[in-house]
Specification:
4-stranded antiparallel sheet; 7-stranded mixed sheet; about 110 residues; globular; mainly beta; about 50% strand
Length: about 110
């Protein structure tokens, strides 16, 4: 399985960060699969953002839940992260991850005016 993140590398404060993960070699509806978003701010550790299960159910980190949405397009085998009202503290490398085992290469997102 391969995962590839895509989206803008620069987002302005207060706007919505939107990233898409394209999956190949597996289906995002595979039973017992979980499709995660994880980020790592510069100089800090990994932070789990949330995931969408094979059923389409979503789960979010409590600290980000109020401004996070994860959705999917099964016809394209993609899932998407939307993080609203971003601040410079949301600057990070963002990764999509299957079952917290198989990682995409990551994409850097900077929040700056």
């Amino acid at each position: 399985v391969q995962l590839q993140e895509s989206g803008p590398g620069l987002v302005k404060p207060s706007q919505t960060l939107s990233l898409t993960c394209s999956v190949s070699g597996d289906s995002i509806t595979t039973t017992y699969s979980g499709w995660n978003w994880v980020r790592q701010p510069p100089g800090k550790g990994l932070e789990w953002i949330g995931y969408i299960a094979d059923s389409g159910s979503t789960y979010y980190a409590p600290s980000l839940k109020s401004r996070t949405s994860i959705s999917r397009d099964t016809s394209k085998n993609q899932f998407t992260l939307q993080l609203m009202s971003v601040t410079p503290e949301d600057t990070a490398a963002y990764y999509c991850v299957k079952n917290l085992r198989t990682w995409g290469q990551g994409t850097q997102v900077t929040v700056s005016s």
